[in-house]
Amino acid sequence: MPHADASLVPPTIITKSRFWDHVHSQLEPLLAGQRHWVTNLANACSLIYNSLLAFPAYFGSDDRAVNWCGEFATWPRRPCHPDLVVIGFYILPSLFPLPRFTPTSSQPNASQDKGSLLLGPFCGKPACQLISLQADKARGVCADVFIHGKTVLVRDVNTYPGHIACDGSTNSEIVCPLIYQGQESDERFVVGVLDLDCLALSGFDEDDQAGLERIAELIVRSCDW
Asked: In angstroms, rounded to a whole number, what is the distance separating the alpha carbons of residues 31 and 29?
């Protein structure tokens, strides 16, 4: 099957729970055999975004469309090499950032990751490049989700304290943490967030939250960070 066909949604799928099960089942083979986080996050946000466009029962491409889907990751990841964020390009594997930790490695050096969230692969209009995580500056949904490690579902972004309006047409949002847990430790680390915006008020609900949290878990365990 061509990779692009992974985003097709059968017309027999008419509920959100079945939709997210379908997206999860399509994402698994896309991530299989590849552990570079840049590549996997790029394919993941493309699959989610285009699958939502192909699901007019709840989203589609009209005034209920999801207008942004992507990830933010912690920055700086390493003190000596900048992250390469690649959207729509193929580059030499040797230029990809090396993983800081893998399922069998020790825990990451969290002191290096306390500054900001850096924009990662996404689909949609241009977005904020950095989101502060510092106590006196942290604002917006993405920072709150990263700091507390819990999904936030915002039915009306205009009522959310400190909301960052990257796109003024956005009316609702859902952000899920990307939580890494090593095999040799019970400790968990938030390595980034998955962020979706919608043009409609109350565009997301608990079914979307359950589906996206399951997808976030799949993304995290499929990557070396």
From this structure: 5
Residue 120: C-alpha distances to residues 2, 107, 134, 163, 199 (Å): 25, 22, 19, 19, 21
- Do 187 and 107 touch, CB atoms closer than 8 A? yes
For residue range 126-173, what is the model confidence (pLDDT) as tens digits?
Answer: 888 888 888 777 678 999 999 999 999 999 999 998 888 888 889 999
Residue 213 pLDDT class (50, 70, 90 cuts): very high
Give the residue among 55, 13, 12, 7 at the shortest CA–CA distance from 27.
Answer: 7
Is the sign of the CA dihedral 55, 60, 66, 69 positive or negative? positive
Q: Nearest 5°: phi and psi at 154?
A: -110, 110
Bond preceding residue 177 cis, omega within 30 of 0: no
Give pTM, 2 decimals. Answer: 0.85
Instruction: Report the amino acid identity of residue 85.
Output: V
User: What digits encode the pLDDT tens for the residues 53-79?
Assistant: 999 999 998 899 999 888 777 644 433
